[in-house]
Amino acid sequence: MEENNAQKPLLFMLTYLLMKRRRDLNSMDVERRNEIQRRQRHRQYFLQRQKRTLMMPLTQSTQSCSCPIPTRVWSNTESTDWWERVVMREFQPADWLEKFRMSKETFFFLCGKLKPRLTRQDTRLRPALPLEKRVAVALWRLATNVEYRTISELFGVGRSTVCKCVREVCHAIVVLLKPMYLCLPSEQELEDAAKLFQSRWGFPHCVGVLGTLHVPIIAPSSNTDSYWNSQGWLSVVMQAAVNGLGHFWDVCAGFPGGTEHAVILQNSTLWAQACEGGLTPNPPRSFMGRPLGYLMLGDAGYPLRSWLLKCYPESPRAMIPDSQQTFNRRLMRAHSVLDVALLRLRARWQCLHKRNDCGLDVVPTMVLACCILHNLCEVHGDTFVEEWVDVVKHGECPQPTETLSLSSEEDEGEEVRILYCEYFQQQEQEHSQSN
After folding, report:
1. How far is residue 157's CA from residue 143's CA, in Å, rounded to a whole number?
2. What would be one Gene Ontology cellular-component term for the protein (predicted)?
3. Half-sphere CA count of 347, side-chain side, radius 13 A
4. Mean of the pLDDT values across residues 242-249?
5. pTM beyond 0.70
6. Kind and range of the H or E run holding 212
7. Any idea what DSSP says for residue 130?
8. Are 169 and 118 in contact (CB under 8 A)?
9. Which of 291, 294, 297 shows the shortest CA–CA distance to 280?
């Protein structure tokens, strides 16, 4: 009995310690849960603040302007609701042009054309990303060249999803729309192009102007030296041919920035077509008393051929004859259609103007897709905002100037050039006599 009485205080003490320990553990669990919730609230606040910071500049104009644009009400909208409610319901025509570089009607026309290749089915794990949203993600990237992370926050999708959308949409544009909007012209189309060049630019028998565009890139993992151009920055070269309306009808891209014009030309389908007589009508048209096929105009970096003419080289030390000066003026006037087309292309799709951080396996496809989209917008008559050009004119990567071709000049090409000198000289004399 005495032993039991002696053990009671010990049992009471043990019971008390156990209960105290349990209260301490419960208190620690509560504090841990509160700390976790506090951190989650802090992280959520930080992410929302970061989203607002990222979306505010994107809602404004992508180019700099003298007068500040007030922040739109939808700049602070959550990403999950931004596409479905704001873009699809509240975007005005000017917003579609500014953010996607095309009208709403052209956007949905494009989505309809790409549907056979881009449609995805829902799975048990997650619903498929809507076709329109995938196209919008890719167009936003092409139009602004902003980072994948920024587009990811804006559209509420993962960065890997943004990268995948850009790849798949650009590839689908090339596969499905290239035969419609970027293909070699037929014989009738060549005849129409020649008439347009003669009536608008005063250069008969011409069906196109040939030139190049350097697209800035980041340093590739290998063979970096070949990508340095004459201006001292890394680039990929695109060769393009345009008609009298400034529409592209032949494009090849992906050559390192240090590649000569003649090398690019000789590795293009245009060279093969011209050498096989693809630019010669049947029967050949008469010009200055002799049969002559269609021809193109190029800059000083291209070799002189019977179907490819370029200016006579000028030097301050040695003046060239008046007939050659007249020929140069006429050719440069007609050549300006290419300069304007490339300027509008870079202004509309700034991934070609700003330094592109995509892999070299993606850049050529992006370039082709941008040229096709340019033709699509021009054919549909979408408005081109002249303020877009200011960003290109004040860019940090000026285009390299052409250098004289080291390839051998063709004698027949010089004969054709002399014919045009005589033709333009006659026109000048007739014009002076009429006045």
Report:
1. 18
2. nucleus
3. 20
4. 94
5. yes
6. strand 206-216
7. P
8. yes
9. 294
> What is the rounded CA–CA span in Å between residue 201 and residue 204?
9
Rounded Cα distance between 240 and 236, Å, is: 13
Least confident range of 37-51, 208-222, 375-389: 37-51
d(C-alpha 178, C-alpha 172), whole Å:
9
CA-nearest of 227, 217, 161 to 358 is 217
Q: 332: which residues sit within 8 A by CB, 6+ positions away?
A: 311
SS3 label, residue 38: helix
| C-alpha count within 13 angstroms, C-beta hemisphere, residue 182 | 25
Which of 279, 276, 234, 282 has the alpha carbon at shortest distance from 255?
234
* 8 Å CB contact between 375 and 248: yes
Neighbours of 331 (CB within 10 A): 24
CA separation for the pair 250, 239 (Å, rounded): 8
Query: Could you tell me if 63 and 388 are in contact, meaning their C-beta atoms sit under 8 angstroms apart?
Result: yes
Residue 308, helix vs strand vs coil: strand
- Residue 72: what pLDDT? 46
CA distances from 417 to 244, 312, 373 (A): 20, 9, 35
Q: What is the DSSP letter of 205?
A: T
Question: Measuring CA to CA, which residue among 211, 312, 191, 337 is closest to residue 270?
Answer: 211
C-alpha separations of 375 from 214, 370, 380 in Å: 19, 9, 8
Q: Within 10 Å of residue 426's Cβ, how many Cβ atoms?
A: 12
Span 71-128, pLDDT tens digits: 444 444 445 567 777 888 888 999 999 999 999 999 999 999 999 999 887 777 777 8
Q: What are the residues facing 256 on neighbouring strands?
A: 236
Identify the helix (H) or strand (E) that includes residue 237.
strand 235-242
- Encode burial over 159-177: b for 16+ CB neighbours within 10 A, e otherwise: eebbbbbbbbbbbbbbebb
**Hey, which residues does 285 pair with through a beta bridge?**
292
Query: What backbone phi and psi angles, to 5 degrees, belong to 320?
Result: -95, 160
State the alpha helices, DSSP H only, in 82-158.
93-100, 104-118, 131-144, 148-155
- Torsion of Cα atoms, 136 then 149 then 355 then 95, to 10°: 40
Q: Decide: helix, strand or coil at residue 143.
A: helix
74 Cβ partners below 8 Å, 6+ apart?
Answer: 59, 82, 86, 90
